[in-house]
Batch of 3 targets.
Target 1
Amino acid sequence: MKKLVIILVTSLLFSTYSLGQERKDYNIYTVAFYNVENLFDTEDDPLTFDDDRTPLGKDMWTQEKYEDKIKNIARVISEIGLDNSKTAPAIIGLCEIENLRVLEDLVNHPLLEKFNYQIVHYDSPDMRGIDVALLYQKSLFIPDDSQSRRLMLYDLDEPTKRIFTRDQLVVSGKLNGEAINIIVNHWPSRSGGEAKTNYRREKAADLNKQIIDSIYQKDPFAKILSMGDFNDDPTNKSFKKVLKTSNNRETILAQELFNPMENLAKQGKGSLAYRDSWNLFDQILVSESLLGSRSGLQFYQAGIFNSHYLITLNGQFRGYPFRSYDYSGYTGGFSDHFPVFVYLVSQQ
């Protein structure tokens, strides 16, 4: 966490410096999200379909590969937002992690150990055994409460057949002494076709809205971040019709959600690539209460962390995120997604 010098001019939060303007010091915090692409241990869990990620499985997932993956993910986390905050993220949501063990191995890696990350994790009923989780620096964030909210889904063709997917993780606590609520998501995939599976993500969006509404019932001015791999772009119905997100912070109303990623998507930016086109499934939604109209923590900026080493340099997938596995097998890469982040600031 770093002191950030910011100049306030009338209603604008940030502007360039000029003589006569009031000089104020701010703290800056990075809050991030990262789909880490199948961070599995090497052991076979008989209750889930994790057989591929074992030494004798299709991926030949050995201890050496596992440790290499842990090192790679630890490096990425240690560098997100570093240029501005001078530390790793205060808070980071993760998805596609198998269990508590891999999280413990991750936070205890030498690249992350000094940040003293703590873990919030619940097992989800996902058939592959992948979960969402939250890591936080103990010196910066203090959790007050956490819960795992189950998404109940059923197949449209077989209404009695349940679709087991990831829970939504809700963590409430204090960042820099100020209350904030974090929701970590990994919505159902598009496997089987986007149109056929739209209803699943819309159901996930509806659960997300229920969670947000319940937070507002307790505190109408609550500060909320909803982050995740939503498997939808910012302009899809799940966002625009169900969550009613806005990309215009100037006209947003109380208790509405600002989606800073929508403007990034309109600029052609993305967090993952498929068939030579970009998607921005990884997003962080920001409550209106974080947009500077009130005191305390305020949203400053959003971004995609796509440092050069995270990009495939050659071959069929040149320019894509440098993933751990491709059609040729193990690559030694990082993930098929780029992390995303927001900066929050608070006056000293």
Note: Helices lie at 63-79, 82-85, 100-107, 110-113, 194-218, 237-243, 261-266.
Target 2
Amino acid sequence: MQRKNKSVYNHIVYVLCCLALLVAGCGAQRSGVASHATATPTQAATKIVVALQPTESAEEALAQQRIASAKKIIAGMSLEQKLGQLILVEYLGQDYQDSGLQEMITQQFVGGFMYQESNHNFEAPYNKADKVRAFSQQTMRDARTPLLIATDQEGGLVNRLRTFHGDLPSAEEMAASGDPQVALQQGAQAAEWMQELGINADLAPVVDVHTVNPPVLESRMFGSDPQTVATYAGAYLEGLQSNGVIACLKHFPGLGAISSDPHEGLPTVKRSMADLEKIDLAPYKIMIQQDHPAMIMSTDVLMPAIDPDLPAELSAKAIDGLLRGELGYDGVVITDGLYMQGISDRWSLSEASVMAIEAGGDIIEGPYTPSQVAEVVVALKQAIQQGHITMQRIDQSVQRILLLKMQYNILGL
């Protein structure tokens, strides 16, 4: 797309330069003299190019305006409101009040919530699109800061929209079509359907590279080589993001070589760093530069070549060092569910939450009751008081989250 836009831009400049020269020549002929005011070809081109620059300048000005607006919002937030932005919750059942979701939104200021089919969120009467849309709208009305409302819609085995739209192709099936347009169309269709439900963020696509058989993730991966994964995941991501829904690459740094389920324990991938760079990290290298993912999900996998002690989502070596430092990603990083057994066997939810923020993450995913949110907030406050986390670090994450919400028209500007 960028190459095409540049070509169109150059063509427009060329045509306008020609018109400018023609007009300048006509003016000189009418006056009957070689006027000093007549532009040379270089001057005319320069004037036209300058006239076309405001589009880029406007984009830069908008970015600066958004940053200024985010900083102003942050300056007016209490500590509780800031910490709430760092938490994306789940809820059990369908009742807004009894589930505790209303309290988490109105009194604990959480930054968003996630619809989960496994939490029975889409059971009757919320098996109808209009009911879910009304639920989403109610949460937005109650929120002090507009919410991220997420699900993880991949298609295939992870098809949160099945209740409303039936079976949909998996990543494996999309790639088997041989046509990235299929993935693009599926992403675009998913975006349309999610917006009908009031959902503005999709924790997809999966960019793990299938390298072990049988794969634990089964048909959730687009392929066994990084370029195929980047091509088809990139198309699905474009379908989402170009249609106004936040996309999220997962599961960083990669689950394509795991041999155990991370829901049931902490998997270990003993690749060399060279192999990780060549295989698991390759789609991220490509897509961070090419596709500009709005979010990236870190996950609970131990990769000794990156960090021999901590799972990736709790590791500063993995997040601040590798993802942000080496791969250059400065967008929003969200954890995988911190209740999964690979984490919960060793750390409490509140301990893991603190470690995730210390590591460079922005959003904690996993609490599903007000008491759990309260525990996380208390733990984060203690970490600040003890000097383990600075207020600058908190504000950095809040700013990233607010800018994301502005970019996708969830928050004004």
Note: The CA atoms of residues 218 and 271 lie 20 Å apart.
Target 3
Amino acid sequence: MNNKWKAIGLCLALIFFITLVGCSQNADNSVEHEKSTGQDNKGDANEEDKNSAQDNATEEDKMDSEESSVDAMKEAVQDKISSMTMEEKVGQMLMIGFEGTQVNDQTRNFMQENHIGGVILFERNITDSKQLLNLNRELKELNADSQDIPLFISVDEEGGVVSRMPPKIVNLPDSKEIGDHNNSELAYQVGEAIGERVNAFGFNVTMAPVMDVNSNPDNPIIGKRSFGNNKEIVSKMGVEEMKGIQSKDIIPVIKHFPGHGDTDVDSHLGLPVVHNSLESIREMELVPFQKAIDHQADMTMVAHILLPEIDNEDPASLSKNVVTTMLREELGFDGVTITDDMTMGAILENYDIGDATVKAVQAGNDIVLVCHGDENKLKAVHSLTRAVESGTIKEERINESVERILLLKEKYNLSSTSPSNIELDKINQSSEEIIRKLEEND
């Protein structure tokens, strides 16, 4: 029996020993697992930190690269300006219109002799698609023969009541109809359609969108061209249309700063006077323009309207209080400013166009728009040149404008090449789709 119990005890001891060793191994394995898991978690955290740091570094590198690219562009533009004659600089600050459906000798000579930086086409210049395509090609070739700075070729293409497209192009709806639907996606699509059609014909600038709040029902000039009488809707629709235009590599021009919506006189015929206070203008008219500027507006057109509470002598287009103090300093706009047409009644009925051109540049405008009359164009360019030669306008002031103009041309990579053909069906398809969506939502 003793031997039996001894054997049983020995077996129990052996079992206990094996169990003890197994537990110890499990405990060791558990510790190792915890260590391993901790290392893995730490590794994951390190990997996340590493990825985050890489992302930040990539973003910083991207920003640095963009800043470097902008700096390089500015440096190249400044080098270009330093090599330009005063006549070449002044020429960049003129945008002109002309008569006829072809470039006649007088227009050709004027553009080449004065190094004109931009042209605008109207209905009088356009007969059909092929003719328009050839005309824009001719303008670009003419410009390339005399200077290596590409030409702004612009058009008033808003859609609706203001459209310059040739026959067979389906017109887009008025801005008011877009505003009534208050559909941001649709407004962007309209911008795309505008950009697509003007790009197809060789334009690179469109005088749109209209950012005026149509607050005066008796307004004879804005009306359906505005997205409406609500500043928020005008802001939202206008910004989306502007972005749609930009997406097609076309320069949009927001207009008519600081707001033409509360006028009761057509500035083509006379000088509108708006007696609103500065505070009222800030709370209403300026809101859409500020929104557009906040979303990288490229060019702003300044209106011929008199605002006695801001400047009781000169209209906005000739007022430093409006162009420099309000638009540039208060709203923070650093893009290109252009006057409305200086041959409109609001100017010609009250000023000599040469004097008005000088005042416009002194006010802070970069481009003076002269749409009609060979004599008007000559007086504008000669008056501005003489003003610089006499010291009335400093050369540094001219350089500021030319730099902004050339930077914008570089930004959009303007060139002297033109489309070779027009896909009318594709252009019309965009318009028809927009019209169909409007009808479906009515």
Note: The first strand starts at residue 94 and ends at 96.
